[in-house]
Write a sequence for this structure.
């Protein structure tokens, strides 16, 4: 089991600047390494306050210089919005810069306004990703690029920085043939559990398993990476603020799937949706609050979903930076060691049976 820190880099308050958010992200990454996390992820989004990071590979390069052990990666490169010739060379460069610590998240993207701004057909996103993936894989494994497809026509050419292998791949996307390709290659498949209990996320896992079986890929090939929103605090009033931040995140995440998301300039508005959870429900059911509640919820997830990777996001609260760092430190001190023992104990039980 790998446990990583996810960084969306949202502008949660009007008084936060992009510089504040990015500098705070670097501090969280430093602390995550000190607390024993295995890795860290950086998001890619465009044109809203949902994220001030349009280039996760730039964040990987910066944070590689301030860490020694953490695996670092984009979660994800929205490949249809990025030319694969640029990406393949930057990945090769990052493999060298990080000493092989790069992990590569690839995704199709899901926000219509981003595709519209780039003048790229969202309907073609799966096919575009497949062609880009082919170019990246060939370039990193052979040192040459060349491709004649519907979306990219690339003459044969060498690339200077290539590691001779692909980094570990994590896929965010629901198209069955993409899921099958990633699993066959030994990659991991992302799901976003968000604020839901394990029983709700189990349906997402079952859908992936069905897609794999449809392509004659056994369930044993599944490496499941689960994204989860967590926050450790013993302060009831602070926990309520965190739950409100989580509800705001759920609202904005959903509205970004609209043709035109609700925003004032880049700042995205929080718009209620039908069936949304209450603050009280989140306080009772989400991994928010005292360490033991967070442990209980994640233990439940592990038992039901059998993930091989957790991507944990703690930056959604809108609280001041010191409080977010304190919650991360509490997680590292009080929750992370328990999760390590939990996964080790369950692995031993499975081997014994």
């Amino acid at each position: 089991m790998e446990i990583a820190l996810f960084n969306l880099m949202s502008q949660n308050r009007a008084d936060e600047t992009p510089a504040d958010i990015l500098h705070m992200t670097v501090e969280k990454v430093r602390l995550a390494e000190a607390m024993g996390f295995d890795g860290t992820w950086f998001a890619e989004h465009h044109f809203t306050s949902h994220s001030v990071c349009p280039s996760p590979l730039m964040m990987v390069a910066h944070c590689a210089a301030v860490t020694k052990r953490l695996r670092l990666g984009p979660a994800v490169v929205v490949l249809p919005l990025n030319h694969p010739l640029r990406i393949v060379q930057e990945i090769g460069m990052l493999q060298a810069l990080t000493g092989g610590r790069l992990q590569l998240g690839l995704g199709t993207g899901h926000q219509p306004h981003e595709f519209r701004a780039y003048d790229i057909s969202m309907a073609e996103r799966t096919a575009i990703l497949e062609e880009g993936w082919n170019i990246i894989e060939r370039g990193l494994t052979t040192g040459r690029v060349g491709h004649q497809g519907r979306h990219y026509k690339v003459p044969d050419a060498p690339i200077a920085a290539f590691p001779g292998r692909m980094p570990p791949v994590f896929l965010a996307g629901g198209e069955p043939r993409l899921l099958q390709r990633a699993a066959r290659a030994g990659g991991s498949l992302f799901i976003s559990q968000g604020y839901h209990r394990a029983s709700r996320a189990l349906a997402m896992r079952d859908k992936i398993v069905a897609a794999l079986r449809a392509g004659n890929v056994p369930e044993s090939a599944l490496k499941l990476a689960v994204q989860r929103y967590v926050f450790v605090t013993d302060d009831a009033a602070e926990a309520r603020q965190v739950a409100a931040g989580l509800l705001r995140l759920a609202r904005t995440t959903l509205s970004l799937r609209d043709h035109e998301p609700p925003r004032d300039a880049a700042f995205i508005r929080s718009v209620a949706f039908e069936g949304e959870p209450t603050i009280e429900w989140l306080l009772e059911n989400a991994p928010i609050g005292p360490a033991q509640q967070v442990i209980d919820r994640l233990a439940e997830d592990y038992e039901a979903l059998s993930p091989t990777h957790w991507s944990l996001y703690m930056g959604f609260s809108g609280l001041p930076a010191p409080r977010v760092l304190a919650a991360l430190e509490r997680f590292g001190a009080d929750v992370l060691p328990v999760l390590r023992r939990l996964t080790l104990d369950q692995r031993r039980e499975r081997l014994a049976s």
About this structure: The chain has one domain: 2-352.
